[in-house]
Amino acid sequence: MEETAIRPGYTVPTETDGTPADYSAIEAAVNAHNQNAQPGEAYWGIRLCGAEYEVYEYGEVPQPPTAEELAAQEAAQQKAAAKQKAVDTLPETLAALQSAQTDTDSLVVDQEYRLTMLELGVTPEE
C-alpha cells in the first residue's frame, strides 16, 4: 500500500463499502501541522465536502507579540483590574459617602440650631 502525504487538497471518502473512513489519521496529521506551524504559515483544517473529508488551508499563524505589545496588553489588563476593583468596592464606597453625608447633615442642623438660639438671645441655661 502506498503512503499518501496528508496536506491541503488531500481527500478521503467518508466511508468505503459501508465502513467509515479512519478520520483519526487525518485529524492527527492536521493537528501535528497546526501545532508545529511557524508564523506566516497557513493553518490546516478538515471539512466535509459531499462524501469526502478534505484537508484545506485557512488563516495564517500570527507573528508572536513584540515586547511593546506584551507591555501594552499587561497595562490594559492592569487597568481593567483596577476598574473592576473600583466597581467591586462601589457599594462600600457609596455606604461610606452616605454615612459621611448624614454626619455632615447632622452637624449643619446642629449649627443652624445654635445660630438661631444665639440670634434669639436664648442661652443654654434657659
SSE blueprint:
Blueprint: E1 11-13, E2 15-16, E3 19-20, H1 23-36, E4 42-49, E5 52-60, H2 67-88, H3 90-120
Keyword list:
single chain, 126 residues, alpha+beta, 3-stranded antiparallel β-sheet, two-stranded antiparallel sheet, 3 helices
Architecture overview:
The protein is 53% helix and 19% strand. By secondary structure, the protein is an alpha+beta fold. A three-stranded antiparallel beta sheet has the order 1-5-4, with helices on one face. The longest helix has 31 residues, at 90-120. The chain is rod-shaped, with a radius of gyration of 36 Å. The N and C termini lie far apart (117 Å).
Which percent bin holds the helix content? Answer: 40-55%
Describe the sheet with the most strands.
Answer: 3 strands, antiparallel
Extended strand count: 5
Radius of gyration over C-alpha positions, nearest whole angstrom: 36 Å
Average pLDDT, rounded to a whole number, is 89
Widest beta sheet: strand line-up = 1-5-4
Q: How many helical elements?
A: 3
Outline, from the CA principal axes?
rod-shaped
Structural class: alpha+beta
Helix-strand sequence: EEEHEEHH
Low-confidence spans: pLDDT under 50, at least 5 residues?
A: none
> In what range is the share of β-strand residues?
15-25%
Distance between the termini: 117 Å
Task: Describe what is shown at a glance.
By secondary structure, the chain is α+β, with helices and mostly antiparallel strands. The chain has helices at 23-36, 67-88, 90-120; strands spanning 11-13, 15-16, 19-20, 42-49, 52-60.
